[in-house]
Design goal:
The complex is a heterodimer of chains A (about 240) and B (about 500). By secondary structure, chain A is of the alpha/beta class. Chain A folds into two domains: about 30-85, 2-Layer Sandwich (Alpha-Beta Plaits), CATH 3.30.70; about 95-240, 3-Layer(aba) Sandwich (Rossmann fold). Helix content of chain A is about 25%, strand content about 20%. Chain A contains seven helices and 13 strands. In chain A, helix 2 packs antiparallel against helix 3. Chain B folds into three domains: about 5-120, Beta Polymerase, domain 2, CATH 3.30.460; about 145-175, no CATH class; about 190-490, Cytochrome-c3 Hydrogenase, chain B (Orthogonal Bundle). A four-stranded mixed β-sheet of chain B has the order 1-4-3-2. Chain B is globular and about 65 Å long. At the A-B interface, helix 1, strand 7, helix 4 and helix 5 of A face helix 3, helix 4, helix 7 and helix 8 of B. The complex binds iron/sulfur cluster (2 copies).
């Protein structure tokens, strides 16, 4: 056992600075050009109506986007521009009416705390696994004063993953009501934020904001752990303002 | 693929023939609405035929205007219990004499008489009403109940558990699941396999590759498409990577059930290393967006092969270290040995699959039982243990990791020597077709059934994930153990709810 611990100390892997860049193939934010005659093809290729045509240009609804790469593929197939996923600018985070927050929130990181309750409202569990990864030694979320708590009664922030299913609608409402004021809600991932992943079915209510008021949206399917951390720190800032 | 058509009265006899006389486990049982083609409602029964390395399929046909009921099979084939309840919820076909007539998938806020998978119901038809769902409890002096969930203390998926306790000992566990039911099987109806792909990939995070692969296999088999060799190698490689990620994550998570922190921490870093590798390979940490019907979308370049080798070499050492940590820690061994036992007979009766089955001495592994991917060409062993306890499930995972590392080595060599650079075959749709696909997910065999209509759109998709087959064993495993061991036992199975619930 001590030999193992010694090896762990020696392999020099330590908690990292949070970086918003990813590996070369990572499908992050969508950038680049798309000829106007290809716009409609992209919109058609998009499985969740996230690729939207506005006049001669496109706009991505990041709340819904699955970062699946189908729009990029459509442009490449038709040689209609250089639309691509950025691997540097991994994922933006949206606050209320679509204002983007950036990594700036990482800079002033002291003097706050945030207690988070996770709620799986109907996820595929990938978002939840990524939340679990936040506590590993690479990300070590606790160093920012953010902690996961066992009950909504102890929480400042409700972190919702997954599209709200009919079977969990009541649990989501009750958890929200059980939280003390001031409280915030974060819709984490394309399901909770955009609600389009599976389309409309008899068993789905929709995005989280159909059931409870949402303050922050984190795009991604699933969002990368670094994106979640940026979002959590922004939430801590918002909470401070409300106090 | 041939399907035996039978009458509802003959279901019993057929199940007896396959399951009791021939010892073939029931892989799946599901309903389908074929009223449009004039056939009526049907119930498919799928049995695994080890000797033929194939599935035996029988289909009972119900007249939609007649009595929609049949004699339950659960008393004969215990593995049918959940399937029958699900068919009742979805199609309204009643298994008479079922030992547990409660609903399964649809909870209290759905009205009685609403059968969502019938074709007359629109995809997004929202019906609200009331139905009863009673939790099973025990009565007696000094007994008490502990309700837990659906929202749990940790970051885990939702399920409601009701423990009947005599002091610390669990007498009985009743679980209410299907909270994350999203109606996925209905959502993909009327879509082409390509259009449905993003949904299938998102049935479950832990087994994305396996779900996608089983689905694509079913489609390809139905349409007689031959997948290029290079694509097969890449798919098999991804599937082994997925197993490594999950097994590493699971062995790192099990110590959380007993508060063994150094092991949790080591497991967490190993898992992160493997997930970063996945992102480098696929562009997504859950390996999404590579497998498509007909083949794969991205190649694995020479640089990536080098990276995979490098990262896995480190992870392999780390896994060996975890093994040492577990072995040398007596207090840990004390907690995991003889805890949460599933005897082999139970594993066979419930038609368990994957790690759960293998840890109870039931050598069930689709990689060996069926011919798919590159597995027939690869050299590997199925790992089993006999004790059926938490320790056995841990050891099976540790040993399988070693097997997977070796498989990846073999696969990378095959990839380097593969001359053919085609990644994808074209699909051509013609006429109504149907078939099944299977792949071994990290949790066990994952079965998909796809029926396409004459325009090549999905008429029925049925998904039986490994977790679905193994969940009924959990209440068995916990009975008689103390309640503080529940998290440990639960983690030793590490079943996902997302792919049970769909
Ligand atoms: S990457 Fe986003 S915008 Fe593009 S097709 Fe996929 S979901 Fe639509
Ligand atoms: S956003 Fe994507 S990863 Fe998250 S729950 Fe939905 S499908 Fe799963």
């Amino acid at each position: 056992m001590f030999k193992v611990l010694e090896r762990i100390f020696k392999d020099k892997i330590a908690t990292e600075q949070i970086a918003l860049t990813g590996s070369d193939r990572l499908r992050g934010k969508i950038e680049g050009s798309c000829n106007s005659d290809c716009l409609n093809k992209c919109a058609k290729a998009c499985p969740v109506k996230a690729f939207q045509v506005e006049g001669n240009d496109y706009k991505i609804d990041y709340k819904k986007c699955l970062f699946c790469g189908k729009c990029v593929e459509a442009v490449a197939e038709n040689a209609a521009g250089d639309l691509h996923h950025s691997s540097n600018d991994v994922m933006p985070m949206l606050i209320e009416a679509g204002v983007e927050a950036t990594a700036d929130v990482l800079k002033n990181k002291l003097g706050r705390s945030l207690h988070v309750r996770h709620l799986d409202a109907g996820s595929c569990n990938a978002c939840d696994f990524e939340m679990g990864a936040l506590s590993n030694s690479y990300y070590d979320l606790h160093r920012y004063g953010v902690a996961f708590v066992a009950s909504p009664r102890h929480a400042d922030l409700l972190m919702v993953t997954g599209v709200v299913s009919r079977n969990l609608e009541q649990a989501l409402k009750m958890s929200y009501e059980a939280m003390p004021e001031p409280k915030l809600v974060m819709a984490c991932g394309a399901c909770a934020a955009g609600g389009e992943t599976y389309g409309d079915t008899y068993a789905i209510v929709g995005a989280a904001d159909k059931v409870v008021p949402v303050d922050l949206y984190v795009p991604g399917c699933p969002p990368r752990p670094s994106a979640m951390i940026v979002a959590l720190l922004a939430a801590a800032d918002m909470l401070k303002e409300q106090m | 693929m041939s399907i035996m058509k039978i009458s509802p009265e003959a279901m019993h006899e057929t199940a007896h023939m396959f399951s009791i006389d021939n010892y073939h486990p029931l892989t799946a049982m599901f309903g389908r609405d074929e009223t449009a083609s004039g056939l009526g409602y049907t119930i498919y029964m799928v049995f695994e035929n080890f000797e033929k390395r194939d599935m035996d399929i029988a289909k009972a046909v119900f007249d939609p205007h007649g009595h929609l009921e049949y004699e339950t099979l659960t008393k004969l084939v215990p593995a049918a219990a959940w399937f029958e309840r699900e068919i009742k919820d979805m199609f309204g076909i009643i298994p008479k004499g079922h030992p547990d007539p409660r609903p399964l998938v649809l909870h209290e806020n759905f009205p009685e008489g609403f059968f969502p998978l019938r074709k007359v119901v629109r995809k997004n038809q929202q019906e609200r009403g009331k139905r009863e769902y009673k939790m099973r409890t025990s009565d007696g002096e000094g007994l008490f109940e502990v309700p837990v969930g659906p929202i749990h203390a940790g970051i885990i998926e939702p399920g409601h558990f009701r423990f009947s306790q005599a002091g610390e000992s669990m007498l009985q566990l009743d679980a209410k699941l299907f909270f994350t039911h999203r109606g996925i099987e209905k959502a993909v109806e009327g879509k082409t396999p390509d259009e449905a792909l993003h949904i299938v990939e998102r049935i479950c995070g832990a087994c994305s590759v396996s779900n996608t692969w089983s689905f694509c296999q079913a489609v390809e088999k139905a349409l007689d498409v031959k997948v290029p060799r290079r694509a097969e190698i890449i798919r098999t490689l991804l599937s082994e990577l997925e197993r490594i990620v999950n097994h590493v994550g699971d062995i790192g998570n099990m110590p959380a059930g007993v508060g063994f922190n150094p092991a949790i921490s080591l497991g967490g870093r190993l898992k992160e290393q493997t997930m970063r590798l996945c992102e480098a390979v696929a562009g997504n940490r859950f390996l999404r967006g590579v497998i498509v019907p007909g083949g794969v979308r991205q190649d694995i370049t020479h640089e990536l092969i080098v990276e995979i080798r490098e990262v896995l070499k480190k992870v392999r050492f780390g896994v060996a270290d975890m093994g040492i940590m577990f072995k040398e820690q007596d207090s840990f061994q004390n907690r995991v040995q003889t805890t949460g036992i599933v005897p082999k007979e139970v594993a066979v009766d419930l038609a368990m699959v994957g790690v759960g089955a293998r840890a109870s001495g039931f050598a069930h592994d689709s990689r060996k039982d069926f011919d798919y991917g590159m597995y027939p060409e690869l050299d590997f062993e199925v790992c089993t243990h006999k004790s059926g306890d938490v320790a056995a499930r841990l050891l099976v995972r540790l040993e399988e990791l070693e097997v997977s590392f070796k498989l990846v080595d073999q696969l990378l060599k095959l990839l380097e020597n593969c001359e053919d650079n085609t990644l994808k075959a074209d699909l051509a749709y013609n006429g109504p077709r149907e078939s099944w696909g299977i792949s071994e997910s990290p949790r066990g065999s994952n079965f998909h059934y796809v029926a396409l209509d004459n325009e090549g759109k999905i008429d029925r998709l049925f998904v039986r994930s490994a977790s679905y087959a193994n969940w009924p064993a959990v209440p068995f495993a916990v009975t008689g153990n103390i309640i503080p061991d529940f998290p440990l036992i639960n983690k030793s199975f590490e079943l996902c709810y997302a792919c049970i619930d769909r």
